[in-house]
Write a structure and sequence with these properties.
globular, 531 residues, two-stranded antiparallel sheet, 52% helix
Length: 531
């Protein structure tokens, strides 16, 4: 079976999506839900994942702030409960003490990475850590006693201690909590008045598709709502109330990940759209896998807009990708649902967005063009919108030639997305931007033939390959040959790969199947040069 067919089949058969457990999310479950099966497994995981410098998490030091805060707070909660086995208890306080030292050693100020809701998660976690230190009875502890007697840890520069309370007061005055806060509910759970706690009838699964948000929701106390009547039950053990659908899904996600938890579950919409787009755009879908992708497109497209996971807001990125994939697999669907996200100059990812996304707008441009290829009569009506997208993308390019984006730590992702969109639909206006992007990519290749913002990776090399090939700039044969040799050496289709975490949610994560699709697509393009 061709690797692309194998990948499509595995994605189709996985009910949750291919991501690794999240240190941050698992620590939140440790803190809020000791009643949930697998508590000691999760505590052991936190202890085992601590780095030699006392921190937790992936990526450079600034990315370790949120996961380290989460782990330290969780271990302090465990130490206060005193319910772990003797072996674990002996390690918990020492690990928490090393973690507190690592937090003190972090840079005093920003810039911090633009991860999801860090502005509320960081001060909320700092407050919780300091509360444990002050009230936890640690005076006699060899490792935690000095912290108990000290001032605690400060809120890092760039964050504001009052941010969670400010958000709570703002929406208390409005009388409702926007759904965008459901995914990161744990950051404001303790500040909200009862009237703003999402009702149990909000959905049938995890709150905001987040295990952390769901257990914080349960601990905060869930008001009765439509859907809670007739059969609401508490989880097994002594835990608080959860609606049956959320309780069942929380346990199922835990079983899928060996009692650990990812940052979002399920990620089927997001994963299937990105996998299908990567493979279809380079002709890697066989009749069988194309049929599977058509089924995905038919089920995912929604005239009301598409959401990346249950419990999230509809968003322009997933909506654009649904339109794009539908066109790529010969199931063209109208881009009309995108209109709700247009703000006059470009597309907001979701209504109420604070910072725009380059990749969402690049996907929207490709979606408009792909639909118009199937419906030439729509080109006139879409012309102004398409031209506006081209203008906005060109304007977002940096002076160096790359594009950054809030959904990914590496500029290679956003640059490839922008180049792919402008190469197809940018015309003369986009030509200069393409040339700049190609020069930027060519000038940043590493000695081993790879590319990467923190060191070479197969994922980023795949993006850089497509930047050079799609930009249409000659003279990159040697760079592409070196890239092909690198990918041949480090990547074997069908073998499990652990890709570095480069994607932004609350912390860094790696959508494994999506990355596999991107690498397969790049290798196919490289091989086609020799045909």
């Amino acid at each position: 079976m061709h690797p692309a067919d194998q990948l499509v089949a595995s994605v189709d058969q996985d009910p949750w999506g291919a991501v690794r457990p999240s240190l941050y999310e698992t620590a939140r479950v440790v803190s809020y839900a000791p009643w949930l099966t697998g508590d000691e497994r999760r505590i052991a995981y936190l202890l085992d994942e601590q780095a030699s410098d006392g921190s937790w998490g992936e990526g450079p030091v600034r990315y370790r702030l949120v996961p380290t805060l989460s782990a330290v707070e969780a271990l302090l909660a465990v130490a206060r409960r005193g319910t772990a086995s003797g072996v674990l208890t002996a390690r918990v306080s020492a690990a928490a003490g090393r973690g507190l030292g690592a937090l003190r050693a972090l840079p005093e100020g920003g810039p911090w990475p633009d991860t999801a809701a860090a502005e509320i998660l960081v001060p909320a976690l700092v407050a919780a850590v300091n509360h444990h230190l002050a009230e936890g009875g640690f005076a006699a502890s060899e490792t935690l006693g000095p912290w108990h007697r000290g001032p605690g840890i400060p809120v890092p520069g760039g964050y504001h201690a009052a941010a969670p309370e400010y958000v709570a007061k703002k929406y208390a005055a409005a009388g409702t909590l926007p759904i965008k806060f459901h995914h990161t509910f744990e950051g404001i759970a303790n500040c909200l008045p009862d009237a703003l706690i999402p009702a149990s009838g909000t959905g049938h699964g995890l709150l905001g598709s987040s295990p952390a948000a769901t257990v914080a929701w349960a601990a905060r106390g869930i008001p009765a709502g439509a859907g809670a009547a007739g059969g609401a039950t508490a989880p097994a053990g002594s835990g608080p109330y959860l609606p049956p659908g959320a309780a069942d899904e929380l346990r199922e996600v835990g079983r899928r990940y060996g009692h650990l938890f990812p940052e979002a579950a399920p990620i089927l919409v997001f994963e299937r759209l990105w996998v299908a787009a990567a493979l279809a755009s380079v002709g890697l879908l066989t009749p069988g896998s194309a049929g599977t992708a058509r089924g995905w497109a038919d089920r995912i497209y929604d005239t009301a807009g598409v959401r990346g996971a249950p419990g999230l807001m509809t968003d322009a990125d997933d909506t654009a990708m649904a339109v794009l994939v539908a066109a790529l697999v010969d199931r063209p669907r109208s881009p009309e649902p995108l209109a709700r996200f247009h703000n006059g100059t470009h597309y907001d990812c979701y209504v109420g967005e604070d910072t725009g996304s380059v990749t969402a707008n690049a996907h929207a441009l490709r979606a408009l063009g792909a639909y118009a290829r199937h419906h030439p009569e729509a080109r006139v009506t879409l012309a102004a919108e398409t031209a506006g997208q081209v203008e906005w993308l060109v304007g977002a390019q940096t002076a160096d030639g790359d594009w950054p984006d809030k959904w990914h730590a590496s500029p290679y992702y956003a640059t490839e997305r922008s180049v792919s969109a402008l190469a197809l639909h940018g015309g003369e206006r986009g030509a200069g931007a393409l040339a700049k992007a190609a020069r930027w990519a060519a000038g940043n290749q590493l000695a081993d033939g790879s590319w990467g913002v923190w060191g070479g990776t197969a994922e980023e090399t795949a993006y850089a390959v497509r930047i050079l090939l799609r930009a249409g700039e000659p003279g990159h044969t040697e760079a592409l040959d070196r890239a092909e040799a690198y990918l041949d050496a480090v990547y074997a289709p069908g073998r499990a790969h652990r890709h570095p975490a480069l994607w932004h949610d609350k912390t860094l994560y790696a959508p494994e199947a999506m990355i596999e699709a991107e690498v397969l697509a790049a290798r196919a393009l490289l091989a086609a040069r020799h045909a």
